[in-house]
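Input set for joint prediction.
Command: fold jointly, output tokens.
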Amino acid sequence: MTTIGFLLPIALLLGLGGLAAFLWSMRSGQYDDLDGAAQRILTDEEDGPC
Amino acid sequence: MATLAPPAAPSSLDLFVAEPSPGTRRIDLHVPGIHCAGCIRKVEGAVRALPGITHARVNFTTRRLTAEWQDGRQDAQAIVAAVEGAGFDARPFSPSDVAAQGGDPASRRLIKAMAVAGFAAMNIMLLSVSVWSGADGATRDLFHLISAAIALPTVAYSGMPFFSSAWGALRQGRTNMDVPISIGLILATALSLYETVTRGHEAWFDAAVMLLFFLLMGRVADSLMRDRARAGVAALLKQSAPGALVRAPSGETEWRPIESVAPGMTVLVSAGGRIPVDGLVLEGSSSIDRSLVTGESLPEPVKPGGQLLAGTLNLDAPIAMKATAVGEASFLAQVVRLMESAEQGRARYTRIADRAARLYAPVVHLTALLTAIGWLIAGAGLHQALVTAIAVLIITCPCALGLAVPAVQVRAASVLMQRGILVKDGSALERLADCDTVVLDKTGTLTLGRPVPAGRLPLSASELALAAGLAAKSSHPLSRALLAAAKAEGVTPVVLADVSEHPGLGLEVQHEGETLRLGRPDWAGASAAAQGHLLTLAFRRGEAPATLIPFEDPLRPDAAAAVARLKADGFDVRILSGDRESAVRHAARALDIGTWAAGQTPAGKLAAIEALKAEGRRLLVVGDGLNDAPMLAAGHASIAPASASDAGQTAADLLFLRDSLMAVPQAVETARRADVHVRQNFRLAIGYNILAVPIAMAGLATPLIAAVAMSLSSIIVVGNALRLRAPK
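tokens >
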């Protein structure tokens, strides 16, 4: 019974973490240009802004 | 003619510049030429090399460059010039386009709702499995409580798309699939909450949230499909000029967006350019290709005083024109008004899922009511009767039914996309499957809408290399067609220097002591018999007699095969064209089409369509021109080629991007097969209900049974949708 006391919160927090990560990645535009990401990996150059 | 210089660099680009934060400026440019990693690097590199640029990034999916710079240190023209210097065309996106394209908010909202529902479904399922495997007493109550804490916000947030759609339908006195979904969801959550509070044995949170998750997957796929089609259409629309080169009385020229061109202004149109507004010719004479607007396939000569329609193509020489009608008064606006009135019929179409819901909802709700009454009569308590009735609602909640249609339509749209056919939305596929008569436009639809040399080229290889070398220096459609034909024959054009272009006449060059001319037959010195035929070029080398090169607007590749296949599919095939009778008769005979009409105006076409509809036919309209737009909107379903006018592309339900007309039978056959799969899915979903409802009515449906049955039926329905194959 005591194990449930910490296993449950851990499971829920992990799930929440995954959800938060997904929402963050969507908001920061990571899914806006999927084809472009596939192409950019072919260039060697540093890909930072400017 | 000296004032008619080629278009200067657009100077009104600043109208497209946005100010995302104080001190910075941003512009979005459509760069259609980007197709590889190297292009991304070249374009971004060219822009980043400019001083003052703070951000430059290409979105490869939408072929869009976003550039930001510090105000005052850079300007939009220099950025466009840099992209053009790297060898790419760049056109500005207007701020309104950018807002419309910046990730559809509806899709984003649905994806977020799905993510939340997915998270909740997994965690609640985790807790539910413990309950099903024997947790009881305080543990079970605790698990129910935690489930409730997760499920309530989830249902409130992720269920919103369904609730608002259901509420919208109910307020208008209609019902759709979202009504039974919402009722089921709300009742399942309310009952589970009651059970949790009263420390009951069974809570249905997992069923409610899983149902939401499955349904949202269907919605998201459907919404993404529509976004993809819309982005495709937007990219096509971008290919037409959004502005005009205006000459001020002082003689200065300025490039203006189309909205700020007023009647009376003098507009310059280069050879090979599209006429941006309706008007009259002021200076210069040329010939005008009206095929995209009226369907007339032969170019028409114009001289000062002649009428010009927006959207037509200026072929031979640069002209200056006076804008007469813009906006509401233009020919385009008249066509758009016809289109809008024609579209009203289509708005009355009811989607197949909503028709199913009309039958489904009353049956299910009546069954639940009868269950409650039955249990009361049989002597059960009010609580047990209600729980059983709600269990019936939960188990029949149209999970599979909600997926039955979108799963098939998304699959159909994606297999059509592989064949170069864009489907704008799912209802287009449903309507397409119903059609029994095809009405085809001729110019640009049955034909390619662009000239190619008729028959074999009458030139030797060396002559062809010289003629192609001349043609390479011109943007005239016939020159381009000749160049393409030469390249197709494996001839490399001779590189010629100092070619002079004589507007309206042709091209001339001195090469190895000979004068070469390519152009109008009379100018190049051909016999008088050929004069006046505008779809003919003549090539002359030195003092040798000129060779005539006739052109024609050919039928699309496999047009005949496509028409035959449509007939084999049971369609009544007809032609309705704005072109001359002789041209239409010729095409009709070549394609073996018995019923045709020529010389139709947009209103005439619309009237013909309405007459056919009045006979009870369901029309599939295939057309491309501005004159076809009203009939595309009036048809039960409509298809347009990617080369269609803006209005045509907007009005059509489907667009095909390749040259082959085979796209039409492919689209129809896929739509019909999709219809078969949708009906199979409905039968599967109903079969599932026939099995599950008696169990629920008998009061034997536990949350475990509901979860298993729901997942199983959803997987079967999606699996059946995936069986749909790409058309031959």
